[in-house]
Amino acid sequence: MTIATNAASFRAFVLGTGSSGNSLLVEAEGVRILVDAGLGPRVLEARLAALGVTLDRGPGQLAIDAIVPTHHHGDHFGGVEKIARALRCPVYLHPGVEAPRIRARFEVREMAIGRTFKIGSLDVTAELVPHDAPQVALRIASREHAIGVATDVGRLTQGLTALLASCDAALIEANHCTEMLAFGPYPMRLRQRVGGGLGHLSNSQTAELAAKLVGSRLGRIFLGHLSRSNNTPERALETVASAAPRMDVSVLPHGSVCALDVRRSKSFQLALPFD
Ligand SMILES: [Zn+2]
Ligand SMILES: [Zn+2]
User: Fold this and answer.
1) Closest ligand to Cα 22
2) Distance, CA 248 to ligand 1 centroid (Å)?
3) Would you say the pTM of this structure is higher than 0.85?
């Protein structure tokens, strides 16, 4: 089934989340942006088809307007080259992404960190966040809606909170439960890496972030990038939802494939009718 692109619609599709591959397609005002490509083109197309989305467009039009990887770890970057080749679409790279092969062989557009730029009619903002590879959180906005993506975050920063506060909905990582990580199967070095300031957010850190965002524009949080070994969807959801009672919090178990509801929350519309 093909769903026509409606200029007024804003859609987002999770095509994978977690260490086995991350990818999110954002589609608005006729523009399609693929945030992260931790999957190959065949899997991407099959998962989109399962969600009722086809990548075909008319002659001379790109199926995807841009691939925007957040960083060069394999679970976000492993499929960039194959997808760029298969779909002939440009790749937007920030200066911290180590990808000499892609810079040499593909259409690369350098993207500045901390400054908003356009992809088609959409506004894209990248904010540097702490991780053990140069990593950005992203905000993608149409005239009507804005979505944030923040995975692979070692610790909270003011810049990240500010970026997410101006989104309607955000995919935010709740990677691990601190207790499960401490007593889980990972060797000490890996535990220290995951739980350290350049690793990933724990459920409690994400809960702290959600609590800070109560009262902002952000009304919907989708918890993603959950560890299969050191977390459960129930723990992540309970920890974060209890810290942000007025927010609509839901959880994407490892490997989820689904459409996200990115509508602006009713409470925000009521609070600020003229925005
Ligand atoms: Zn990473
Ligand atoms: Zn990752």
Assistant:
1) 2
2) 26
3) yes
CATH architecture of the domain with range 10-265: 4-Layer Sandwich (3.60)
CA–centroid distance, 73 to ligand 1, in Å, is: 5
**What confidence tens digit (pLDDT) does each residue in 190-232 have?**
999 999 999 999 999 999 999 999 999 999 999 999 999 999 9
Q: What is the pLDDT of residues 7-56, one digit of tens each?
A: 458 999 999 999 999 999 999 999 999 999 999 999 999 999 999 999 88
194 C-alpha to ligand 1 centroid (Å): 10
Domain ranges of the chain: 10-265
- Distance from residue 118's CA to the centre of ligand 2 (Å): 25
Distance, CA 271 to ligand 1 centroid (Å)? 36
Tell me which long-range contacts 21-28 makes (C-beta under 8 A, separation of at least 24): 21/75, 21/78, 21/79, 22/75, 22/76, 22/151, 22/224, 22/225, 23/79, 24/149, 24/171, 25/53, 25/64, 26/122, 26/140, 26/147, 27/53, 28/122, 28/140, 28/142, 28/145
